[in-house]
């Protein structure tokens, strides 16, 4: 049951056992957290874990589990996989789901991590192309092409474009 499970690259999953009594509260709180701290159009993909074998295979340690980009921000490495209810430590004590503030903080951390990763990737790509250009400037010429970028193999050219098609 997916309601736009991926938007802006963020993937949010709710793993539950059948008839989990905490599912409605988890969905509502997660929706509030996403609206407050994350991409608002991020959907929540709900997956029902129905067997102990599946729970053991995926490390399912109680219902509900919230995964943000495949990671459980509230993971307890000492929990044993199984088909049971999960309790979360919240500011107001043990509860069947994290509270909205804790979920918002987890979403904000995921957004920040994603932004940091994207910045690192963009910086690495920029450095690569600058290094490549400097090392092989004769391949690229000393001036920008001046024309619109075209995909390799593209035959869409306007009448103003002259010369050979360039990627």
Largest sheet: 5 strands, mixed
CATH class of the domain at 2-112: Alpha Beta
Helices and strands, in order, run as EEEHEHEEEEEHH
The helix tally amounts to: 4
- Kindly provide the radius of gyration, computed on alpha-carbon positions and rounded to a whole number of angstroms: 24 Å
Beta-strand fraction estimate: 15-25%
Which structural class should the secondary elements be placed in?
Answer: alpha/beta
Classify the helix fraction into a percent range: 25-40%
Query: What's the end-to-end separation, in Å?
Result: 42 Å
Region (Disordered): 137-167
Organism: Actinocatenispora comari
Protein name: Alkylmercury lyase
Biased composition (Polar residues): 153-167
Task: Write the SSE topology.
Layout: E1 2-3, E2 6-7, E3 10-16, H1 23-37, E4 44-48, H2 52-58, E5 61-63, E6 65-68, E7 82-85, E8 88-90, E9 93-95, H3 100-135, H4 137-140
Parallel strand pairs: 3-4, 5-7
Antiparallel strand pairs: 1-4, 2-3, 3-6, 8-9
Helix pairs in contact: 1-3
């Amino acid at each position: 049951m997916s309601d736009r499970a991926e938007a802006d690259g963020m993937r949010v999953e709710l793993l539950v056992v059948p008839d989990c009594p905490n599912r409605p509260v988890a969905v509502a709180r997660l929706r509030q957290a996403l609206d407050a701290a994350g991409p608002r159009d991020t959907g929540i993909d709900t997956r029902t874990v129905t067997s102990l074998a599946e729970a053991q295979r995926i490390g399912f340690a109680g219902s509900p589990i919230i995964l943000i980009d495949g990671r459980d921000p509230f993971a307890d490495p000492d929990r044993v996989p199984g088909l049971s209810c999960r309790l979360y430590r919240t500011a107001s004590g043990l509860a069947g789901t994290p509270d909205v503030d804790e979920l918002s903080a987890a979403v904000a951390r995921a957004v920040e991590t994603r932004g940091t990763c994207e910045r690192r990737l963009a910086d690495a790509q920029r450095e690569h192309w600058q290094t490549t250009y400097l090392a092989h400037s004769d391949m690229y010429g000393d001036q920008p092409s001046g024309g619109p970028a075209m995909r390799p193999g593209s035959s869409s050219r306007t009448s103003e474009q002259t010369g050979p098609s360039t990627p």
